[in-house]
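Re: the 145-residue chain
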Amino acid sequence: MKEQEIDTESLENRLSQVGGVEDFWRDNALNLRDMTLAEFLQGLLAQKGLKTADIIKRSGMDRGYVYHIFGGQKANPSRDKVLVLALAMELSPKETQHFLHYAGAGALYVRDHFDSVIWYALEHRLGVTETNLLLDELGLRALSL
């Protein structure tokens, strides 16, 4: 039987049921990835039909800095920068969690006040400015650009 690509949740279920990690690796080889942040972002751009220039405009971030992230010259941007880009790209919370992973940043934790606002903003497709206004209204720090 030919292996097909499956979603992350299905992989998590398989891992919880397998006898050993090596068996999991062997049985799911086509679904395991060693990807750089730049490769992950290029895949997202293609999948969503986005252009880096549009993301820069929506994010309000420095043009050169964003191109360095997408080009692979900046492998570990700050968590705030990742969240700003996620908002600008209109990513889902799940996609944002993957983005944070590849950037080497901490995952969103909805029990945290700040993170719960970001999660809400992602779910409701709020832009960067709208999100920062909401954070301010709630007495929380703004995302730094």
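The radius of gyration is 17 Å.
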